[in-house]
Specification:
The chain is elongated, with a radius of gyration of 55 Å. By secondary structure, the protein is mainly alpha-helical. It is built from 13 helices and five strands. About 15% of the residues are buried. A five-stranded mixed beta sheet has the order 2-1-3-4-5, with helices on one face. Among the domains are: about 70 residues, NADH-quinone oxidoreductase subunit E (Arc Repressor Mutant, subunit A, Orthogonal Bundle); about 90 residues, Glutaredoxin. Helix 2 runs antiparallel to helix 3 and helix 3 crosses helix 4. The chain is about 40% helix and about 5% strand.
């Protein structure tokens, strides 16, 4: 795709104004949008300006649309140069827009492009008789019937170079032409005609209610002798070989207690059974152990300290007995074991007495 530029100054008209009819139409388009959103009507107005000017947009038409919508001229120029449906140069009476994207290209669009080059010249060139000009464009949305081309406002599909040449000859001569597929295809059905859903009964209404009739027929058969015999046979089979009922399969089952205290109280009985009371009063089966007497806490602490002093940090208490609880605040200060007190006093005296060193004596008083 080449860069899109405005036509030369020699081809540009001096002025452009909408006709009174088109001006009224443009106002109707603008009124479709809320206040401040008039710019949304830029494409319809450009399309109408192109139609009025003979199929292409001059610079003055672009500026007239911008003034009508209150838009900067450059903004409308950006829109006009972006979309290939807006022709920026004079075109022929029949403007051919040939699709050149992948589906059409793979189905023969290159051959069509070569044919147009040979017959009309380069893209954008108007033929000597003024009837034709052409341009390669992006996808036009008829890929299922590729290759195709848009001529003015109509689509022509399933083209070949020969079919396109005949179509152009008929248009130039003013003969009627067939819009759409040129090979007899209907809409986008397979080439050669539809090959599915071909039964006429699908579309003539004869199958309406068919399913209901089938069910009604089954009900009638069920009331016949044969239907009754089949029903009786099924009942006999079910009676002789019943299947186990599993109403709770696949779900949690909640069952209520039938011999609990609440049920006995509701029935007017004692909530606790006599047998339960006897079992509770019988001590022969009890697993509880009698409690052994324990020494006073201060005495146990003193013994633990003495044992720890003799055996280091290891405790002589059995591992299966809990450690003694500490005495209450102040109790250990008031109650002391005589043996531990003597041991404490001797250790204190030994720690405060300095050993004598040979050749050294403590200073005497008075010196």
């Amino acid at each position: 795709m080449a860069n899109r530029r405005l036509a030369s100054a020699a081809e540009q008209p001096a002025t452009f104004t909408f006709s009174s009819e088109n001006a009224d139409w443009a106002k109707g388009q603008i009124e479709k949008y809320p206040e401040g959103r008039q710019a949304s009507a830029v494409i319809p107005l450009l399309w109408k300006a192109q139609e009025q000017n003979g199929g292409w947009l001059p610079q003055k038409a672009i500026e007239a649309v911008a003034d009508e919508l209150g838009m900067p001229h450059i903004r409308v120029l950006e829109v006009a140069t972006f979309y290939t449906m807006f022709a920026l140069e004079p075109v022929g009476k029949f403007w051919i827009q040939l699709c050149g994207t992948v589906p059409c290209d793979s189905c023969g669009a290159r051959e069509l492009k070569d044919y147009l080059h040979h017959r009309l010249g380069a893209p954008g060139h108007v033929s000597a008789d003024g009837n034709f000009s052409w341009l390669e464009v992006e996808c036009l949305g008829a890929c299922c019937n590729a290759p195709m081309a848009q001529i003015n406002q109509d689509y022509y599909e399933d083209l070949t170079p020969d079919l396109l040449g005949k179509l152009m000859d008929d248009l130039a001569a003013g003969r009627p032409v067939k819009v759409g597929s040129q090979v007899g295809r209907t809409s986008s059905e397979p080439l050669g005609g539809a090959d599915t859903l071909t039964d006429a009964n699908l579309f003539d209404g004869s199958r309406v209610g068919t399913w209901r009739k089938r069910f009604e027929q089954k009900e009638v058969e069920g009331g016949s002798e044969q239907g009754k015999a089949e029903a009786a046979s099924s009942e006999q089979r079910a009676a002789g070989d019943p299947k186990p009922a599993r109403p709770d399969a696949g779900r949690a089952v909640g069952t209520s207690a039938t011999d609990g205290p609440a049920q006995r109280a509701a029935a007017g009985e004692s909530p606790v059974k006599a047998s339960d009371k006897m079992d509770a009063a019988d001590g022969t089966n009890s697993t509880a152990q009698p409690a052994s007497p324990t020494a006073p806490a201060p005495e146990m602490i003193a013994k633990s300290e003495a044992a720890g002093a003799e055996a280091g940090t290891q405790s002589s208490l059995p591992r299966n007995e809990p450690p003694p609880q500490p005495a209450a605040t102040g109790a250990s200060a008031d109650v002391k074991d005589p043996q531990s007190a003597g041991t404490e006093a001797s250790s204190t005296k030994a720690s405060t007495t300095r050993p004598e060193t040979p050749g050294f004596s403590a200073p005497k008083k008075g010196n």
